[in-house]
Each structure stands twice: as structure tokens, then as C-alpha cells.
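seq:
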Amino acid sequence: MFIDGYSLQLLLGAWITIKLACVAVIPGLLFGLLAASRSSWPIYLRYPMDVFIFIIRGLPEILVIFFIYFGLTTMLSQLFHHYVDISPFKAGAAALALLFGAYASSVFQGAFAAIDSGQLEAGNVMGLSNWQKFIYIQLPQAWRHAIPGLGNLWLVLVKDTAIVSLIGVSDMMNQAKMAASTTHQPFTFYLLAAFIYLLITSISQKVIDIFSLRSKRYLHS
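struct:
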């Protein structure tokens, strides 16, 4: 029963891990999609975004998480002249979203580049606006090309959630560490955590495969 109680905490930590990844992936996708279009931005906007993406991709994930959690807390506290407490969960989700989006921007750039330019010319002939061409021509096809890369980034995101335990989020790794230190059975609980991670990533891969197949259902062989 002692181990079972900690196993339940581990499962609750797994739920936090899944929730953290899901919360981070949506803004991460939007940020990546926005950053992928920066080549068409004015130079005074494009260069700062290029530098920002370079920094996010060049730093270890743990440093990005620390900078967001501790740096943002310090900055807001100085701005408002009193201590501002930022939730570790929110800080971790924001950091993971930035990391996901920085890498997703390259995936989206490659996906948009793979679209036949003739289809955009056809859109011009039909009198479609730039927004209509983006919604009806570019985005659906870019999504099909981007799914494999985005799927890999999602799997990396799920595993990167383990890092947020360092700022106090009660995710699965945090729970496994506490259970291992209390019961002196590290192999048992870390093995159980590994099994749950493999289960999550296996299910994720099946979902990614379904999305990939559905995105190709209108293609002719």
C-alpha cells in the first residue's frame, strides 16, 4: 500500500505532465507560425525576431526555463515595486511554448516553401486576397508538410516537461524523485516513470500518424 500510494502520486504527476505539454503546444504553434512569416516583415521587426529565435534555440532548455521563471519574477517585481509571484506551472508552460515555437518556425518555413508557387498564381487569377490564399491554399498544404516535424517536436516537448520539476512543478519526474527518496526504491519509481513516458509518447505517435494519414486523404496516388 505504501508503494501504491506513491504510484498514485506518480499518476497524478503524469496528468500534470500531459496538461503542461498541452498548455504549451497551442501558443507554441501560434508563435512558430507567426515567426515563420518573419521574412516578409519590415527589417526593424524581422531582425529582433531573428535574434530572439537565435537566442532561444542556442540556449539549453533549462536556462530558458530559469530565465523565464526567475528573470520574469525579478523584472515584474521591480516594475511594480513589490514581489510578484509567478506560478511555476505558468512559467514552465511559457518557457516550453517559446522553445517549441522557436523550433516550429523552421518546420513551418520548410512547409510553406514546399508549396507549389503555381497554386498561389492560381489563387491570384481567382481574385483571392492574401488572407484567403493563406487560409485556403497555403495553410492546409503547409500543415500536411509540417506534421512529421511538428510531431517530433511534440515528442521532445513531452520529454522536456521533466525539466520544469527544477522550478517546483509537481510533474511526474518530481513525484518520482520524491517517491524514490522516501521509499529508497529509486529503480522502482524511475522505471515506472519511464514506462509512463513511453506510454504517452506511444499514444502520441499513433495520434500523429492519424493526423498524417488524414492530411493526405485527398492526394492522388
